[in-house]
Amino acid sequence: MKKRGSYNREKYGRNSYRQSSACRWNRRRSSNERYGAEGLSSPQSSDSSNRAFSSASSSNSSSSVPELPGFYFDPEKNRYFRLLPGHNNCNPLTREMIQHKERESRRLKLLEKEDMQKKKATRIGLNPLPLLNKRQLGMLCSTSYCRLVHELHVNCMQRKKVAIQSPDSSVVGTDHFKLIVADTARERIFTVNDVEHGGCKYGIINLSGLGTEALTVEMYDNLYFTNRKVNSVCWASLTHPDSHVLLCLMGIAETPGCASLLPASLFSNTRPGDQPGMLCSFKISTAWSCAWCLNPQANSCFSTGLSRRVLVTNAVTGHRQTFGTNSDVLAQQFATQTPLLFNGCRSGEVFAIDLRQRSRKSQGWKATRLFHDSAVTSVRVLRDEQCLMAADMSGKIKLWDLRANKCVKHYEGHNNEYAYLPLHVHEEEGLLIAVGQDCYTRIWSLWDTHLLRTIPSPYPCSKEDIPSVVFSSHLGGLRGVPGLLLAVRQDLYCFSYN
What we know:
Elements lengths: L1 H34 L9 H7 L6 H7 L6 E4 L4 E4 L12 H22 L11 H9 L5 H15 L1 E8 L10 E7 L5 E7 L5 E7 L9 E11 L3 E7 L7 E6 L8 E6 L16 E4 L5 E4 L8 E6 L2 E6 L5 E5 L4 E6 L5 E6 L3 E6 L11 E6 L4 E6 L5 E6 L4 E5 L4 E6 L11 E4 L4 E5 L5 E5 L5 E5 L12 E8 L5 E8 L2 E6 L2
Parallel strand pairs: 3-7
Antiparallel strand pairs: 1-2, 3-30, 4-5, 5-6, 6-7, 8-9, 9-10, 10-11, 12-13, 13-14, 14-15, 16-17, 17-18, 18-19, 20-21, 21-22, 22-23, 24-25, 25-26, 26-27, 28-29, 29-30
Helix pairs in contact: 5-6
């Protein structure tokens, strides 16, 4: 009897165990079907998830399935994978790694699409032949026609690598481009390159070779370099147009910051007939921005944006004007028709200074006051000086009407979180160009804010490899080629009109 009772208990115990296992399996299966997944992966399957990573964005996946804390849903595998901590693991699967792989996959797909597709339409119905017919029939004015033609050409530009030559072959292709700035004639670009052992090196590239089929430019370096960080650069017209380059250098240790005027003649063979220029250096505290004044009422003057003040200096006499502010000045530009200096601050404020006033520490002298929600990194005054373009660290680009002190246009798509990124406004072509912190170069229509094109970087996204660009309808001079120059790492690329 005892044996039979024990046998029955073992038999019923097995049955009950099988039933409970089946119930658990059914509940797991139903939950997986409800979430549209095959099941949560084991720790061993997390290694295979790295190899089977999909390029679908996490935003699309999160909208279709619920997000589970500690797990990542792969839409291609249709299952969840466990996220591992990012420290003591051999091959962890972290959210940062997932986002990086998604960005890299999108970049590679966009690069492939750029290489395959030679013609792209920016708008529905915008084709060359109908556009020409409308122009001949008088349905389009010359300004609108030229603007739409530029839109067509911008979307047909293809990437080509530019060969850089130098009298000293050892300096070519060794240092990474940090910044490129074109002169007013678009004949030369001033380059700031990072040096491997620290500091920066300067050079000037002659763009006359862009009109040839070889796409070869000449770069002239100078032995003058610095071990300090370059915060801002602009061309200066001290003795003649674009005769000097103004640089703001950050101070280190016991060495204070300074603003230096480098004559372009320091770089040999940059322009025939250049005479040795005047080399000036002004000791100042850390300067975040600089601008050169082309207004005759403030001749030979430049401005530097400092911490909580603006310093306007006459490069010939050395006379200075100081204007106190409530925040660091990160962006500056002079107006040309009126003696006004526009400033963008870390606090998000944009204001103008009338240079005809004496220096004051109160806030009553501010001619114009506009406000962004984040630190302003770039300001550009339009040609009629009735509108101003400003970009901030939240990725917002706004067009302000200075007469009404209100925002009239927004340009969507720019990416920025904390970087100092410039804007490039080209009114003749009706284009706005900006490079985002995600290393994408975006081109908008200046007049209706339409995003015309997004150009990916040839290299993976990195905060150290954000491209620097120059655009013009005449790269290399009046008879030059129209297009876009893009400098990233040690390479220079040209996107010319087809």
